Structures are given as structure tokens and as C-alpha cells.
UniProtKB/TrEMBL annotation:
Residues 6-63 form the HTH lysR-type domain. One of its GO terms (biological process) is DNA-templated transcription. This is Glycine cleavage system transcriptional activator. InterPro entries: LysR-type_TF_proteobact-type (IPR058163), LysR_HTH_N (IPR000847), LysR_subst-bd (IPR005119), WH-like_DNA-bd_sf (IPR036388), WH_DNA-bd_sf (IPR036390). Belongs to the LysR transcriptional regulatory family. It comes from the Bacteria. Keywords: DNA-binding, Transcription, Transcription regulation. CDD domains: PBP2_GcdR_TrpI_HvrB_AmpR_like (cd08432). The lineage of its organism: Bacteria, Pseudomonadati, Pseudomonadota, Betaproteobacteria, Burkholderiales. Signal peptide: none annotated. GO terms for molecular function: DNA-binding transcription factor activity; sequence-specific DNA binding. PANTHER family: HTH-TYPE TRANSCRIPTIONAL REGULATOR, HTH-TYPE TRANSCRIPTIONAL REGULATOR TRPI.
Amino acid sequence: MKRTLPPLNALRAFEAAGRLGSFKEAAAELHVTHGAVSQHVRLLEEWLGASLFERHNRRVVLTPAAVAYLAEVGPLFEQLSQATARYGLLETVSRTLSVNAPATFTLRWLVPRLAKFRAGHPDVDVKVETSNESVESLKETYDVVIRGGPDTFYGYTMRLFLSEERLPVCSPALLQRLPLRTPDDLRQHTLLHTSSLPRLWPDWLAKAQISALRPAATLTFDHFYLTLQAAIDGIGIAMGPTALVSNDLAAGRLVAPFASPRLPSRSYCTYVPDGRSADDVIVLFRSWLEHEGMRSRTETAP
């Protein structure tokens, strides 16, 4: 006899939300966004033809039917967890997720967070390749392509997951040697440039109303990650994108001497080939990126 099973990711979201009593806490446990949990619960409600939660502004309450359903579903997840701990490693079939992203973004934002994704989803093997080619110029097809945006490419669905701004950053040791009390003090410092982004410093100086400032020296690199490393090493001051330097600011490797002005910057988006956007693993990874992007924005807010 054929089994009738609900969508398992939706069931997992319902179990976590019902057990924790919160969509927000369920999202944190599952490493997805609040919206993803809400979407999965709505899918399960449509599949069952019944309401599972009563929504009251910022809180949700299980319906009487959902309380009974959770009482049976919850122990099944616990049994599944215990069985997997005993035998699952022998039977696990991993799914490979191919991702293409810019090198500096991968090095400074994605890689430090991938361990968290792997811990929550050990059955997903993430294969990351780096490239700065445009989405339409890629010779291979990837499950997820990360690029700036928002842009529209034929044959791809786009979702924004991370916004950022740019502001001057440098090492604490450099500030001890040459303090920066006002933007005009930059004339005593070396300004670090990236050849592919020549307008960053001129635009920031114009916004700070000191366009005529002449620094003590300038140093230009061909890759942006080299520019940021030079700032960490105390060689000079770089225009740092807030998302990509958030870990360095939190760890004290870099400081931001001026909270403003800030230059606007393009956002990071995921581009997924049409026909794959409903894939469970791709939905999971996209939702995780959006959750981490939200956390990153909170950490770097002025």
C-alpha cells in the first residue's frame, strides 16, 4: 500500500515551530529565514487542508488539531534522530550543491559561515568555485550563482540576500601611530586602492566634502582581498564593504574611524537557473544565505 506523506521539509518546519512556539526560533534552529518557516507551514496547511497556527501579531499559537498532530509527529522526529545516530551514517546519501561566487566574497563572508551550514545540514556537500564572470558568461551551470545586483538574466530567478555600504577601515595599530580625528587627517596616511574600483576613494572624499585632499601616499592592488589584507597589516586605509569586513571589525583586526559618510554599494544576490528554484536543497541554501545576510546587516548597522 502506497504511503501518503506530507512534504517533509514543511513537516520539519511545523515540528520545530510547534515545539519551540515561535517561527523566529524555529528559523534560527533550522538555519533558514522566518519567511521560509512561514512558507513551509503554509504549504503544509494547504496539503492538510487545515489550519495549524493561529497568528496573533508577532506570536503564533497551535490550533487544537495541531496540538494533537504535534503530539504524534514530535516523537517520530525524535525516533528518527536516534535511529540516524545509531545507523544513519551507514546509509547517508549526500547531495552536492554547486555554488559559484566572487573570490573576495567567498574568502571573507561565505567561507567563515559555511561551517555553520554544514553543522545544520551534514547531508549537503557544498562545492564552491570562484569567478567574477557575469552570470550569462559562465560556461558551466551551477545550482546557485552569487553576484552583485539586483540584475535580471534570462533563464534565472534572482533573490537578494545581503546589502552593504562602504566606509574607511584600518588597523588599530595604524591609528595609534597616526590618529584620525577628522577626515582631513587622511592627508597623513596611505590610501589603499583596488584597480577595478578606482572611484571608491574619490567618491567618498567628495561625500566627505574634502575632494581636494592629497594623501601622503597611495597604493593600488589588482585584487580587492589584497587591499583589505594590506589594511589589516597596517599598511594604509581601505574603503571596506561593511558585510565583508564585519568579522574583522568584530574581532578588532580592523576599526572604522568614521561612522559616516557611507557609500552605497550593490547588493549580493542569488541567481538560480529556471526549473531549479523549487529544489529543496537550493531553497534551503538560499534561505540560509538570507538568514545570515540579515544577521550580517544587524551586526554592521551604524
